[in-house]
Backbone:
């Protein structure tokens, strides 16, 4: 088979509904229809526009200076956007550079398509910051695509505008496309990067309603780019897979984005408060260390006590404490690392952190 299941999604599928305290999720806590307070009874359950609801594309384009609704395609989550972009731009034997660690689909899709994938590593000794000189060294004459994610999942690594401009300059200099996953852009703690897709015809923005807005269940993502060639190629792929999006999902996304400031301000306040809880807790954990995230809703701590079997901790958390983190192996990283998410409810986070500490203490008894 060309495609294999991702360890990350297998872990989620196996355990996420068996726990009460999810401190591994990479999103703001999911909302309900009741939380949104909207009437959907008049939504026509028909096929929609292949590029997405025009009103939704119009409001999305507002985040990309100089772009219009025609430069945006709405997809079935960010995952479809990634799949369609990569499938449109590369062929077997092409070379792709993907920042790592990252959401696995970003490197698994080009691998499954028969590409040579080079991992552009965010190294712990460099505080998970990109080394742009190393990125240039990874580029070959066969390189067609560079894939970056900032704020990063799972490390929480962030770059500034000058670094973003360096990345764009590299893509332009080598004549390759840059796929920039900006799903957490609104959850920057300080400077917010500009909408990447507006910066150059070589750049494609990828984002979704899943993470910052707490709406993964509506399955709405999008891409934005100046490149008509990319947009046309993506549409050709979408029309073989999903054709259009969920009418309900698009209407919910449009209604939420009309009140974007309200939702994002609330999410930022919530995430910052939870981050302080995690930071305080981490300072008390002798068996753990981390590099503090610079943005987003996740960090990537690691177990420093060699007496501890990480996999035992992760399974003990689920089976004995009904709690949930993501093992490092799900990102092809040292399994002593785990993804810690702090976008959930405050009480859920606090209990989940206590349970992590208890599971570690149990393993040392």
Residues:
């Amino acid at each position: 088979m060309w495609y294999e299941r991702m360890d990350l999604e297998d872990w989620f599928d196996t355990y996420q509904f068996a726990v009460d305290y999810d401190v591994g999720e990479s999103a703001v806590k999911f909302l309900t229809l009741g939380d949104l307070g909207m009437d959907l009874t008049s939504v026509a359950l028909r096929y929609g526009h292949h590029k997405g609801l025009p009103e939704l594309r119009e409001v999305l384009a507002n985040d990309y200076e100089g772009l219009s609704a025609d430069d945006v395609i709405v997809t079935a989550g960010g995952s479809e956007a990634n799949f369609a972009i990569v499938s449109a731009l590369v062929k077997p034997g092409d070379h792709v550079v993907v920042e790592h660690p990252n959401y696995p689909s970003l490197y698994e899709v080009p691998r499954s398509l028969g590409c040579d994938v080079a991992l552009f590593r965010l190294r712990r000794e460099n505080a998970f910051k990109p080394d742009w000189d190393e990125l240039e060294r990874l580029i070959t004459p066969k390189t067609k695509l560079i894939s970056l994610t900032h704020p990063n999942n799972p490390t929480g690594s962030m770059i500034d505008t000058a670094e973003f401009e360096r990345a764009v300059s590299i893509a332009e200099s080598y004549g390759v496309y840059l796929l920039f996953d900006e799903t957490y852009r609104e959850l920057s703690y300080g400077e917010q990067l500009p909408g990447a897709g507006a910066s150059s015809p070589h750049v494609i923005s990828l984002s979704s309603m899943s993470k910052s807005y707490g709406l993964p269940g509506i399955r709405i993502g999008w891409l934005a780019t100046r490149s008509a060639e990319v947009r046309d190629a993506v549409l050709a792929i979408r029309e073989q897979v999903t054709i259009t999006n969920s009418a309900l999902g698009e209407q919910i996304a449009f209604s939420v984005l009309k009140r974007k400031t309200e939702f994002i301000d609330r999410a930022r306040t919530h995430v910052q408060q939870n981050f302080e809880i995690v930071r305080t807790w981490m300072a008390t954990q002798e068996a753990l260390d981390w590099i503090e995230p610079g943005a987003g809703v996740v960090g990537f701590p690691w177990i420093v006590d060699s007496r501890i079997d990480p996999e035992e901790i992760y399974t003990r958390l689920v089976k004995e404490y009904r709690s949930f983190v993501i093992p490092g192996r799900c990102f092809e990283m040292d399994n002593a690392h785990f993804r810690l998410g702090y976008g959930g409810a405050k009480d859920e986070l606090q209990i989940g952190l206590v349970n992590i500490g208890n599971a570690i203490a149990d393993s040392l008894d």
Residues 39-258 form a domain with the Aspartate Aminotransferase; domain 2 fold (CATH 3.40.640.10). The chain is about 40% helix and 15% strand. Residues 260-282 form the longest helix (23 residues). The chain has a mean pLDDT of 96.
